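Typical record was shown:
=====
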Amino acid sequence: MKIGSEKILCFDAHLDLAMNAMEWNRDLRWSISEIRESEKGMTDKPDRGNGTVSFEAMREGNIGICVATLIGRYVTRESTIPGWHSQEQAWAQTQGQLAWYKSMEMAGELKQITSSDQLHNHLKSWNDNRDKKPIGYILSLEGADSIVSMHHLEIAFANGLRAIGPAHYGPGVYANGTNSTGKLNARGIGLLKEMERLNMILDVSHLNDEAFWDALDRYKGKIWASHNNCRKFVNHNRQFSDEMIKELVVRSAVIGVALDAWMLVPGWEQGRSSKEKLKASLEQVVDNIEHICQLAGHSRCVGIGSDLDGAFGTEQSPEEINTIADLQLIPELLQKRGFSEEDINAIMHKNWISFLEGAWN
């Protein structure tokens, strides 16, 4: 198959679909142009009128399967980070997001995947007639603050939750994340034990360095990084150092490369930098992919975890991105760098699928 002659299946390992639906009030059944038109003049969110994700755009880009998130952060009264003032409120927020996913399943737009059999059946069905098929999703929790107790974790698992990132930004209930310090606390250690018992996937995205190494020392189950880039290119604690990447390779993890401009371009300031002055491009995305492959010595450890519309839109995306369908530009860029067809298919979808097969069998 010649790259570019048809659209390669894309597995996107990080999309905040429910957050966009419930907090941004975006009906993802609308086209991108309709969503943007509906947001003209709105200023409550930084990316109003610049959205890139809709079900139509995902189908256009052959993004037939994704990891879709729940998110509900707990914060103290003094916190400058937005969130909810009790764990119970955060839990309720995630349950509203879960209800949206279920409603989209009823509408025929989405299909939840929780096992290898469901995964294989979905992929076969998608390839048969993707234009009219529901998009598959694996449910993940970004930041574990909303897990009030281990009983709540069991409820979440029964509802299809299969991956958890213990922290997001700042200090959390179970672990500290981006722009903070400190190892896992006692509750975090207990959470990992229960996750391991339930055979859940640990997402190490957003863990600060100390918590990252502590989690890897403690967790014996499957590990991935749904959306992370390389510190080599942007020297920030949100990114992975070469040492961290090498350890993830040893653990047979897959790292999803993200498309957020501040994670691609040194010096980019969120909400301040403009694409006219500091350009982000898909070439920089491929730089990150290539660097991870070079450290690993193979292409089995990297994929796409775009994070598109993760509180940013076209104003903070690579300049080639108009909608999420433009992820289909990546295979040709990989080919120009010398990646084989086998490597490109691995990066675009097979690595995530192989990971899940190993986790669920």
Summary: The chain has a mean pLDDT of 95. The chain is about 35% helix and 10% strand. Residues 87-106 form the longest helix (20 residues).
